[in-house]
Each structure stands twice: as structure tokens, then as C-alpha cells.
Design goal:
CATH architecture of the largest domain: 3-Layer(aba) Sandwich
CATH class of the largest domain: Alpha Beta
CATH topology of the largest domain: Rossmann fold
Number of helices: 13
Strand order of the largest sheet: 3-2-1-4-5-10-9-6-7-8
Shape: globular
Largest sheet: 10 strands, mixed
Helix content: 25-40%
Structural class: alpha/beta
Order of helices and strands: EHHHHEHEHEHEEHHHEHEHEHE
Length: 304
């Protein structure tokens, strides 16, 4: 299921739902949960609810998202919502930490061990970030952009534009071309992409997010924009043509496009200064996470 109603303007803030373990370092608490169970985890959190949690992998990104303002005013352009498997009781430590760091996170869903994907539509979520594989898979299956935040490099520049980078196939676009490559090889992939160059690719799970970012960007001048996007793909010429024409068909501007022909993506993402990068393939995520915050999109033929 993919949401295709992306042609309308995006009048509300971009909504990002995030799990507590993506936002904060809950490594020790999670060990208690895995070794001793949910009741022991709840006791552990209650005993330490005044102890402030250290930032997690997505914390710098959230800080930057929350500082983003709409053009011509002070209204926030992004709303961040906590979507946690904690109970409200054990989650008090998380909200104490949110308050300590001054994060403007006001809404939360605590599910007490249940998967939070069923609340994404009610929340109006454009993106869900988590460290939990199954929660990410279920959210993607429900038609919402979602990624598993990987351990690695949490650094994000706290100045300059918000910089978000995307892979193409199985992320912005469907995995139709990637399936040809996997099943028939590079020559068949290249031949098909040449033949279908003027046929737009179907949208992938992150099309809606890119559209929403594009609409936020549209309110600002191009040369003074607080959001910058990039396509970072293993494709190369002549397979680049179909990608460019697909984005033109969608009416979506992307600021930078890197067609790397299989080169490691990490150094290029570092040069772009990505605050986060989304890719469906583990090999590219491994390269990226040494340089920038990385979200593994558990979607498409490579993740079946």
C-alpha cells in the first residue's frame, strides 16, 4: 500500500513520529527488558525516572527539525511526536528527559509493548523513525515512510539548512527496476531502463515525504532555503534519465542528484552534509552510517 494523495499542498506541519530508543540512549534499560522482561524494565525506569537519558542516534536530527520554522512566521514547520512501546508510567523518564533538553515534543503515544504503527494515520505521520525492525516493517506495510535508525554517526550540523538525502529505487521509487536487476542482472536492468526512460517510475514509500518537504521548500526562495534534499543513488548513465523524468513528472524539485554507479555512498553523503540518509540496502547503509545518521528502509526486494 502506498499513499498517492500527494498533489495537494501540505498545510499542516510535517509530522515525524519517533521511538524513545531512537531519540535517547536506552541501551542499559533495553538490556534489562531483554534479560528480565517487561515488569523488570518498568521497575528499572521508575527507579531512575529523575535520571536524564543521554541523547540517542536521532537526537541531533530532532533538534534541527524542531528549530525549522515556516516561511514568514514563527510557526513550527515540523512536529515531532513520541511513539513509544513504553507504558505511560515507565515513559515518565523519557518525558523528563525531553523537558530537560528543552525539546518541543508535546504529544505522545505509549503502547505498553504493542506495535505503534496503527496510530500513524491518526497522528498524520509523514515519517516514523525507530530502532525496532518489526515496527518499521509494519509501518511501511501500512503505507507510511519508516526507517530503522542505525548505530553509527549521530553528528548533525546544528547550523545551516536541514539536509536530507534519499536513495532512489525502493525508497523514493518502487522496487520495480531493482527487481529486474536482482532477477536478470545489470545488462537487463540497463536495457529496460533505456526502453522505459519516458515511463515514470511508481512511487516508493518515501515519495510522500519528499513531496511534503518540497511543499515546505516552495515557500522560500531557492537561494535562501532552510531545507535541502539530495538523491544519492547507485544508478549511472543511461539509467539516470528515467529518474530525472520521473521527478519532473511528479513536479518535485530535488536540490542535488548524485549518480554514483556503485561507488561507496558514505564519503559523498559526508560531502553533502546530510543530517540523515535513507536507503533500502544494507551495504549502502553500512557505508553511510560511518559518516552520517542513517535510516535503513526495510522495504523492497532486498529486504524480503
Amino acid at each position: 500500500m502506498q499513499r498517492e494523495n500527494v498533489s495537494e499542498l501540505h498545510p499542516r506541519p510535517l509530522v515525524v513520529a519517533i521511538s524513545s530508543r531512537a531519540l535517547f540512549d536506552l541501551g542499559r534499560a533495553h538490556e534489562v527488558f531483554e534479560q528480565e522482561g517487561l515488569a523488570a524494565y518498568a521497575r528499572y525506569q521508575r527507579r531512575r525516572e529523575e535520571d536524564i537519558l543521554a541523547p540517542g542516534m536521532a537526537f541531533p536530527l530532532v533538534q534541527k527539525l524542531l528549530r525549522l520554522r515556516r516561511a514568514g512566521g514563527s510557526q513550527p514547520a515540523v512536529e515531532v511526536i513520541l511513539a513509544s512501546r513504553n507504558s505511560a508510567d515507565s515513559g515518565l523518564r523519557i518525558f523528563n528527559s525531553i523537558e530537560h533538553y528543552g525539546l518541543q515534543v508535546e504529544r505522545a503515544v505509549f503502547t505498553n509493548g504493542e506495535a505503534p504503527h496503527r496510530y500513524m494515520e491518526a497522528l498524520g505521520a509523514d515519517l516514523f523513525l525507530s530502532t525496532h525492525d518489526e515496527d518499521v516493517r509494519r509501518t511501511l506495510a501500512a503505507g507510511f515512510a519508516a526507517a530503522r535508525i542505525l548505530p553509527g554517526c549521530p553528528r548533525a550540523s546544528q547550523s545551516g539548512p536541514l539536509r536530507i538525502a534519499f536513495d532512489g529505487d525502493a525508497v523514493l521509487f518502487s522496487d520495480e527496476a531493482e527487481r529486474v536487476f536482482q532477477e536478470q542482472g545489470l545488462a537487463a536492468f540497463a536495457a529496460r531502463e533505456r526502453a522505459a526512460a519516458r515511463e515514470p517510475l511508481s512511487g516508493g514509500p518515501f515519495k510522500h515525504l519528499l513531496q511534503a518537504l518540497h511543499e515546505l521548500q516552495a515557500a522560500y526562495p531557492i537561494d535562501a532555503n532552510p531545507i535541502r534534499t539530495a538523491l544519492v543513488t547507485a544508478r549511472s548513465a543511461p539509467a539516470h534519465k528515467r529518474v530525472i523524468l520521473t521527478l519532473r513528472h511528479w513536479g518535485i524539485r530535488i536540490d542535488e542528484a548524485l549518480f554514483l554507479g556503485g561507488r561507496d555512498k558514505g564519503p559523498f553523503l559526508s560531502a553533502f552534509g546530510a543530517d540523515i540518509f535513507f536507503d533500502d540496502q544494507s551495504v549502502h547503509c553500512e557505508s553511510a552510517r560511518e559518516h552520517v545518521a542513517t535510516g535503513h528502509v526495510l522495504h523492497g526486494v532486498r529486504n524480503e
